[in-house]
Design a protein that fits this description.
Length: 170
């Protein structure tokens, strides 16, 4: 129980140790199930909205998800391996999780809720993100049940226009 409490406190109250991403927008592609276009909008340093349109099992798929990122947990585990530590000093490697609606357009629309869990790599000296995610999907219509999504992808980030502080951009 102590570990669970520590995990929850760390997860939600830890200050960010990375660059400000608030307002940054990423556009890219994802391959897997679904395959298509992906977009991500950072609301602040930990929360983002992710959306995609694509093809899933020969049907048109649309989903929108709110994601919570953790930039510290993976680094703590990775500090035990030298190559991993070098990777995490040259970029951020957050894991993320979230929830949101998904619609699969087929003969009868399939509506469900996705619960993605993934890992992203955001190099410090590059505007690109590489990601890998799995997402159980709880189907609500036309019948209840479970499906699953799996995707790998890349996104290119357009940095947000930030307000000037003291006459210069931060």
């Amino acid at each position: 129980m102590k570990r669970l409490n520590f995990f929850l406190i760390t997860l939600f109250l830890t200050p960010p140790l990375y660059a400000d991403r608030r307002g940054d927008q990423g556009l890219g592609i994802m391959l897997g199930n679904p395959t298509g276009l992906s977009a991500k909008f950072w609301m602040d340093d930990l929360w983002a909205i992710d959306g995609a349109i694509g093809i899933d099992r020969s049907e048109f798929d649309v989903h929108l998800t709110i994601l919570r990122h953790d930039f510290i947990w993976v680094n703590r585990i990775g500090n035990k391996w030298g190559w991993f530590q070098r990777l995490t000093t040259e970029g951020d490697l957050p894991y993320y999780f979230g929830a949101g609606p998904r619609i699969l357009f087929e003969d009868k629309e399939e509506i469900g809720i996705r619960f993605p869990v993934g890992l992203s790599y955001l190099p410090h000296q590059s505007p690109w993100e590489i990601f890998l995610e799995v997402a159980p999907v709880f189907r609500l219509t036309p019948s209840t049940g479970f499906n699953g999504d799996f995707s790998v992808g890349v996104r290119y980030y357009f940095q947000a226009i930030r307000p000037r502080v003291g006459g210069v951009n931060p």
